[in-house]
Amino acid sequence: MISFITNFTSAIDSLAKVHRLLPWLIAYVLLLFLPNLITATFGEYYVDLANRCCLFILLAVGLNIVKGFCGQVTVGHIGLYAIGAVTSALLAQNYGMPFWLSAPLAILVTCFAGLVVGLPSVRLEGAYLALATLGLGESVRIMIAVTPALGSSTGIMMIPAPTIGNYVIESFDHYFYLVMTAAIIGIYFSFVILNSSTGRAFKAIREDVIAASVSGINVPFYKLLAFVISAIYAGLAGALFAHMPPGYLHHNNFTVIEMVTLLLMVVLGGIGNIWGGVVGAIVVTVIYDQTKDYYFYQPLIFGITMVFLVVFMPRGIGGVIEQAIVKRKFIEKHEEQNLGTS
Amino acid sequence: MALLETRSLSKSFGGLKAVSGVDLKVQPGTVHGLIGPNGSGKSTFFNLVTGVYQPDPGSHIEFNGNDITYLQAHGIAALGMARTFQLLRLFSEMTVLENVMVGNHCKTSYGIVESLLGTSRVRHADQKMKEEMLDLLEFIGLANFADIPAGELSGGQRRLLALGRAIAMKPKLLLLDEPGAGLSPVNVDKLMETILALKGRYKLTVVVVEHILKVVMSTCETISVLDHGQKIAEGPPEMIKDDHAVIEAYLGRELPDEEIRNAIRGQ
Fold first, then answer.
1. Same structural domain for residues B132 and B258?
2. Would you say residue B89 lies in a domain?
3. Is A3 inside any structural domain?
4. Residue B192 burial by CB count (10 A; 0-12/13-18/19+): exposed, middle or buried?
5. CB atoms B94 and A200 under 8 Å
6. Strands (E), B51-172
7. Do residue B165 and residue A215 have CB atoms under 8 angstroms apart?
8. Are B188 and B244 within one domain?
9. Under a CB-based contact definition with an 8 Å cutoff, are residues A173 and A47 in contact?
10. CB distance B52–A210 less than 8 Å?
């Protein structure tokens, strides 16, 4: 298993040497065939599931930036997702804006909301920050639930689907191209951020705030920046969710349970590991969907899984694989050196 | 002109005066020792100068001609002051190379928006910086460990890395908080050699807090002695060695025989 992954990553590395975007383009082209494949083997319903996977990938990758890279425990991410969704839906419905205008505006609004959710992080840490952000996230949902203009208990219906010229993107497999593109771009940029000075500043803050600040990192600024970047991801996912066929959203999509599911994705995949978050999002979304019949037990099972993960596999799937790869590389390097000296 | 100057620097925690009224001048290009018994305020002094703590009103700190009394830590770092910690505070889950690259944060040549978009300028600048940092790791002898997490290094290597991270900032002034703590005498000598070599290579001024007096006496040009938050002596090592106040602070006061006899009798 591990050797397969190392071979796979080295193959990707050699592709990236030709051009750094080449592996991304190949992955993109391959994914274009996925809806046909899924429809042929499983049925059209599963394309919808794949769409939801892509949305949760965006959410998980965004959450990983603020929680995994920067180490800020936020439970308000789902609130940002809600703000993105409702803003885009209302702009499209009430002002007749096309998706391509309402979505960027929704992202902008979500950024400001992200800034507000992030403000407590300047003063608070750990569990206290989690409580503060939980309050903010949940109050967003309650606002939506009680305000008729925001949908209240009936939800917002008939949200127009995105259009290109005269063409309306309203079938599941065509919507897949839209959310998949967004997910790929989101993953790509989270790698860019991780490998830049900004990403290193985030990680330094996660590891040691005081050492980071005497190394010249403006800690409050970078904390807020992490929240704003994650809000961009959440806003985009929200807008895509609102316009996804059948164009309906309800405040039940933004509950604390959803937030815990989202956290489970990130923890299962590996906190601070981008591909781990992607794998976690896919695994959890699929399992969640396939066990719908037992919805009564879902929170219980998910909660227990979370506890076991934190105790026995704190770095998640991604962390375990990453460690195995690092170990293997280290051993190989030493063997080479030993061969060289003897 | 002094590179670092403090005037009546004070800091109280509740009723405790950790540092009170310290006037200190560090001349450029020197190695300045700061010694004193445990709890004498050495670490607090470092924390005040580097902006980790805010000093009490009335204090004044000047660095390289800038008033830095109430600047935040990252602002002071950007002016060219680097420090190490007694407990190191490495970024232990980041690789050795990433640790020194964080140290170089202030010298990043591209803006934040650019870094988020990953423009070609960012990639080139990062590549150049990486080479520079590998060069630094080579100099302190950690190049072979560049890709492993800092938490997996041995104790001595961690001390070197902490030093490397501070040097990566290309500072004018380097504050070392007990660089030799927990090292064997041989390794302390090696570390001091490395520090002096780095000082020559990067044209640094160094302030060092150290408990091992042998090290301080042999490497520092000027020594300041703190006790109970106050400066009790200052001068070249030969002078400090014979200073009565210093001996008293470290060993206690020497009493005449008669007084001791009386004390034993309980009079």
1. no
2. no
3. no
4. buried
5. yes
6. 60-63, 66-67, 81-83
7. yes
8. yes
9. yes
10. yes
Q: By CA distance, what is B94's nearest residue in A? A: A203
Report CA-CA distances (Å) from B54 to B11, B172, B198.
8, 22, 30
Range of the domain at B218: 4-80+171-265
Number of domains in chain B: 2
Q: B136-177 pLDDT, tens per residue? A: 999 999 999 998 899 999 988 999 999 999 999 999 999 999
> In terms of residues, how long is chain B?
267
Q: Does A38 touch chain B (CB under 8 A)?
A: no
Q: Which residues of A touch B108 (CB under 8 A)?
A: 197
Amino acid type, B220: C
Residue carrying structure tokens 């009564």: A296
Q: Are residues B98 and B33 in the same domain?
A: no
In a domain? residue A170? yes
Same domain, yes or no, for B25 and B98? Answer: no
Number of alpha carbons in the 13 Å side-chain half-sphere of residue B196:
12
Same domain? For B175 and B68 the reply is yes
Name chain B contacts of A200, Cβ cutoff 8 Å. 94, 98, 101-102, 105
Residue in chain A nearest B48 by alpha carbon: A214
Would you call A214 and B77 a contact, using CB atoms and an 8 Å cutoff? yes
Chain B residue numbers with beta carbons less than 8 Å from the beta carbon of A229 are 116
Q: What is the number of domains present in chain A?
A: 1
Mutation to test the B interface, candidates A20, A185, A192, A197, most B Cβ within 10 Å: A197
B100 contact partners, CB below 8 Å, separation of at least 6: B133, B136, B137, B161, B164, B165, B168
Tokens found for residue A163 = 């259009």
In terms of residue numbers, what domain contains A194?
33-341
CATH code assigned at A234 = 1.10.3470
Q: Looking at the complex, does the CB of residue A192 fall below 8 Å from at least one CB of chain B?
A: yes
Option in A199, A203, A213 nearest B73 (CB)? A213
Please give the residue of chain A at the shortest CA–CA distance from B123: A196
- Domain endpoint, select from B135, B168, B201: B168
This complex has an ipTM of 0.91
Cβ <8 Å between B102 and A208: no
User: What does the pLDDT average to over A108-113?
Assistant: 97
Q: Evaluate whether residue B88 is within a structural domain.
A: no
Last residue of a domain, one of B168, B193, B212: B168
Q: Measure CB to CB from residue A214 to each of B83, B93, B147 and give the nearest one.
A: B83
Min distance B68 CA to chain A CA atoms (Å): 14
Q: Exposure string (b/e) for A28-43, b if CB count within 10 Å is 16 or more? A: beebeeebeebeeeee
Residues B19 and B101 in one domain: no
In this structure, is residue B70 part of a structural domain?
yes
A136: in domain: yes
Label residue A272 left, alpha or beta by phi (over 0 means left) and psi (-120 to 50 means alpha).
left
Residues B187 and B251 in one domain: yes
**pLDDT of chain B, 267 residues: tens digit per residue:** 899 999 999 999 988 999 999 999 999 999 999 998 888 999 999 999 999 999 999 999 999 999 999 999 999 999 999 999 999 999 999 999 999 999 999 888 888 888 888 888 999 999 999 999 999 999 999 999 998 899 999 988 999 999 999 999 999 999 999 988 888 888 888 888 888 999 999 999 999 998 888 888 888 999 999 999 999 999 999 998 888 888 888 877 767 777 777 777 765
